[in-house]
Design a protein that fits this description.
Blueprint lengths: L1 E4 L3 H13 L4 E4 L2 H10 L4 E5 L7 H10 L8 E6 L3 H9 L4 E5 L3 H16 L6 E4 L2 E4 L4 E4 L2 E3 L3 H12 L5 E2 H9 L7 H15 L6 E4 L3 E4 L1
Parallel strand pairs: 1-2, 1-3, 3-4, 4-5
Antiparallel strand pairs: 6-7, 7-8, 8-9, 10-12, 11-12
Helix pairs in contact: 6-7, 6-8, 7-8
């Protein structure tokens, strides 16, 4: 089941129709009130979430989803206005898995949904990764720095995990975009820089282990 939270009825109906035609089950909601009511009865496989909504906006809905244990693991694709880079960055930093720029094609939407679901379907190894003062426990989804637990967003956590799985290897921005966001996000390399910056800040002294390789990308020492 896929939920689509979109206040424009023409877009919402088209999305639900396209999903149904592609073999998915789908439900549409015009605002957050019926959406939250439906979430009490059923947890979807994925949520398509518009940012501009009446009442409770999409970013607020996303942050609530990510802070609730019962919904934190549900993949979310944000729908944003074309050219709204700030909205995309805020959405991704708040835990969105991907985004679609309006107007978007139905084939593109289906392709992105399948890509996100494939990533979530992977049977990732549960392990404890350590590097210097950093420890990442993937089975508990926790990160500690010199014994102090660090609170990270979903994307910051996934970014750190990529670094810790590839210590000493220079990771280009394109490679990080592909690994964490499952796409190239052409022209969106600043998204990586923003996330690396906030990750370093949250890690404190241990953040110095993530070094910048000029003109290439980043490396975890």
């Amino acid at each position: 089941m896929i939920f689509c939270l979109e206040d424009d009825s023409s877009i919402r109906d088209l999305v639900v129709y396209a999903l149904t035609t592609a073999g998915f089950q789908a439900k549409g909601f015009p605002d957050s009130r019926p959406f939250w009511q439906a979430m009490e009865d059923e947890k979807p496989e994925l949520i398509i979430l518009d940012i501009m909504l009446p009442g409770e906006d999409g970013i607020t809905v996303l942050r609530k989803l990510r802070t609730r244990p019962s919904t934190a693991g549900i993949p979310v694709i944000m729908a944003t206005a074309k050219g709204a880079e700030y909205d995309r960055v805020i959405g991704l930093d708040s835990g969105a898995d991907d985004y679609l720029c309006k107007p978007f094609g139905m084939m593109e939407m289906i392709s992105r949904i399948k890509a996100v679901l494939r990533r979530y379907a992977k049977d990732d190894r549960k392990s404890v990764l350590t590097r210097g003062k950093l420890k990442l426990d993937d089975s508990r989804h926790t990160v500690t720095s010199d014994g102090r637990e660090i609170t990270l967003t979903l994307k910051e956590y996934e970014l750190l995990k990529v670094f810790m799985e590839n210590p000493g290897i220079v990771m280009t921005r394109d490679r990080l975009l592909k690994a964490v966001w499952d796409t190239g996000f052409a022209g969106e390399s600043r998204t990586v820089d923003v996330h690396v910056g906030t990750l370093r800040t949250k890690l404190g002294e241990a953040g110095e282990q993530i070094t910048t390789v000029r003109g290439v990308g980043y490396r975890l020492e």
